[in-house]
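Subject: Interface between my chains keeps coming out wrong

I've been trying for a while to get a sensible model of this assembly. When I model each chain on its own everything looks fine, but I need the whole thing in one frame so I can look at the contacts. Pasting all components below, labels as-is. Any help appreciated, I'm running out of ideas.
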Amino acid sequence: MEQPGSDTHLHNRSHAIFGDMSFFSKQMRIALRNCGTIDPDSIDDYLQARGYEALAKVLTEMTPPAVIDEIKKSGLRGRGGAGFPTGFKWELTAREQNEEKFIICNADEGDPGAFMDRSAIEGDPHTVIEGMLIAGYAVGAQQGIVYIRAEYPLAVQRLERAIVAARAEGFLGENILGSSFSFDIEIRLGAGAFVCGEETALMHSIEGFRGMPRPRPPFPSVQGLFGKPTVINNVETWANIPVIILDGAEWFGSIGTEKSKGTKVFALAGMINNTGLVEVPMGTTLRDMIYDIGGGIPNGKKFKAIQTGGPSGGCLSEQYLDTKIDYDSLAQAGSIMGSGGMIVIDEDSCMVNIAKFFLEFTQNESCGKCTPCREGTKRMLEILVRITEGKGEQGDIEKLERLGTTIKKASLCGLGQSAPNPVLSTIKNFRVEYEEHIHQKKCRSNFCDYLLTYTVTDKCVGCTLCRRVCPSAAVTGTPKLRHEIDQMKCIKCGLCFKSCKFSAITKTSH
Amino acid sequence: MTAKNIAIYINDKPYQVQPGQTIMQAADLLGFHIPRLCYHPKLSLEGACRVCIVEVEGMRNYVASCAFPVTEGMKIHTNTEEIRRARRDIVELILDNHPQDCHICERDSNCELQRLAHTMGMKKHHFSGDRKRYEKDVSSVSVVRDPEKCILCGRCVRMCSEIQKVHNLGYAHRGFKTVVIPAYDMPFKDSVCTACGQCINVCPTAAFVEKNYTQELFQVLGDSSKIKVAHFAPSVRAAIGEAFGMEPKNLEKELVAALRKLGFDYVFDTQFGADLTIMEEAHELLARISGKGKLPMITSCSSAWMKSLEQFHPDLIENVSSCKSPMSMMSAIVKTYFADKLQRNPADIVSVGIMCCTAKKYEASRPEIVPSTDIVVTTREIAWMIKSAGISFPNIPGESFDQIMGLSSGAGAIFGATGGVMEAALRTAYEMYTGETLENIEFTEIRGLKGIKEAQVVMNGKEIRVAVVHGLGNTAELLDRVRKDNKYHFIEVMGCPGGCVGGGGQPYAGLNAIPLDEDALRKRAEVLYSIDRVKTIRRSHENPHVQRLYKEFLGKPNSEKAHHLLHTHYHAKEPRGIIPDHPIVK
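Reply #2:
Try treating it as a single job with all components included. I did that and got this:
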């Protein structure tokens, strides 16, 4: 048998193939072990990659409590963002006395720019099925449901085919592999509401209701889908399960940091040379991530911030570059692990605007149920818009902090509890930018239109184009002579700047 | 058996409480009132408003006390500077997206949000900005929906779906634009709203109010060419005192006096109409029992039930009594018999129903019902009119009803409580069927607030099985049972929880009271039962004025003339969007 951890081992296959590239050499692929190396539509390919071996192992060699013990020992924590210990979650459901229990795979990946779950299902659908089967056996459930967004047609198609194939081979259905264990999986399509990634909202949606969260307790493990005990885990979590069973909790526990075991997949994006999905052992530093794997910032620009954890994560400044990527270190630094979004921001970006951008998203996606999230994020956004439009007032930062804290601590679900993060973290790490916007009406990145001054330089040949496009008649001048912009009339629309063919108009923030 | 107490700490003081309760329940029993908004004890937990947050030591976030259970050793803080500020911020966020026009609002001085803002110590708007903009829906004759006033506590949504099972209301859109609407954003008049008005009762603000007819009524009262006739329902006299800060008590005489002072020429008692209804209904029942017509017979006096029947239970239309409601019978008699007596043109008479009900406004607008009631106002509306007209109610010398339609039996009084119509009908039907006097006329097993109540009466050796149901949700449940296996002869249906005493037009819950509190419903019902107890005439058929009406005008119960004036009919009205006979529907 291959030695776990060796280069020839299945979870290091991509490493073996591409190991000499810096993008891959620091990666370790467990959840994505088969992505790109097997044909996702072929169950034979999966079987060759030791597929369903873990299922066979638990059905023949392990009791359900032993399976749960193994997962608990591995230290695996939920990859959906909150990082709840997976084995403990299963144990809570296993403990419930109920004839009907459910296993749910949360594939409602909603973070903009994140596609970890999508790739995992598109590249290796069977591993998700196998992970769910193992949990079904461990907690005594007979029905699994994959809740996946309809915007992922290829993933849905591949998963459907995989389920059909698994049924045909006897991995799903009655008396699996001759055991007394029966289990089947259904697919439910989500309509793309971000909040449906929240577990109680997701279950409401499966039940046919509007996707809105409900207060917990009762937790899903006790009272979940249709009131039955339910294990709900994210795609990436499921993808880790078969490997843990095959290679053992001890091996898995040897990867990562003390409290965060294994690897984590990130969607690396933004101002970075190598964008894409990366899977790294927990404990890798942000610096390694950006400069070794990501290959640094393009065009020789300076690093400014990194935003982790999707739209509700925090923005960390340069001083946090040596932060380890794990649940607790990121939380301590003022951000979150989240489901794995990672956006690199360079010096050209305005942090107030970044905060506004993310808040706009969460504010739009708020389900509207609880007051702090519904009303509070709107007010925060209004303040941010005001600041970027040069109408910021003394006390706005304090208002944002006060509202943000209340929303964080008083909201009903994770969406609201994390929505203020981008704002609070940028205030913490880039307060001076906020102050410049408010007091000096200045955007150091020359990004906020309303804070810019457009001026005509000597390059002007007097072509009159800017004068003609200006909607507020702020540009004056005679043909063939240098034009001028009346700052009192200028509405900062930027049309002159965009239309000038001689780069004769500059925008600066004073 | 009670479980062993557990120790908790509230604001650093130790207390012993029963496990299995929420923090809010435990705190309530200990004398703490944690502010709240979306919470309602009769409805499912929403946890949405976040006003009831408290601090719990060891928890990262605030905890919604309505939803979170107490645990051993839990250290709860309800009143720290931090939690007070967070709560105030939350209420302010609600207020900032709410019209700032309390002084022109229907619920001014009677608004839970206003009271909450006051107790929070709101002194300043910190976060004002945009406000959501939606049009008022005034299409329905009963219920007006004003989404701008809505604070999205969801009580109406839960009331409509959980208690009434009408499912007319739901959320649409997301985030800041979230709004409560009927399906497909239909105008209320086209929606499946049964006009029961329970959304109004549970709404903490004026997002739902009744369609107000007080201006029309004031106008009519000032018109000297008209003869103005008022008649008010049993439950109105029991509850109107609450609008003036009193406990439920019988204010019949005071209300008669106040109505005369308002300008009515004649004040009659809808209880007379109730007696008349019983005469017709009991005869119809006896006819059905002897084989003429379908069983079980189902009562028809609740207007919300009428609409619910046509929309959701059209298969049972033939089971429902053709009798009009007491209000419509009153108006029919006022505009015929009474007009004859006065020797006046019926067109000169304005018949005004003062009802505990919003659905009665809908009933009056039904084309099937002629002659109809011209104006229907609720208990709330008439209470406001009395205040507005400067009548010192209730410290007013009481007066008696006008005659020929002012005398009623005790049976007519109990109509307002769930089980009352059944009890009244049985008192009469028994004596008509057997020819004997009913000794024990109080049917206690069909009184009270149990959802579905049953009783048996033996008449001439024949066992008559009856059921009483209140609330449209309970009704749907009972009717499903009846469809599968009918064992009943007679069923009383009231659309509102508690019957008419809990109607959608009753006074708003007062300071610190819970809307639709069962205690309040019981007290109102008790007023009606005590009216019954002291009456010398307690059976409808013994009402001499009803007897005179039949003798002089109608002939016999269920006579052709009675049928023409006192009976109506129903049509199946499938809700829009539902295809009749579709396999999914059947």
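Reply #3:
Confirming on my end. Chain A touches chain B through 33 residues (CB under 8 Å).
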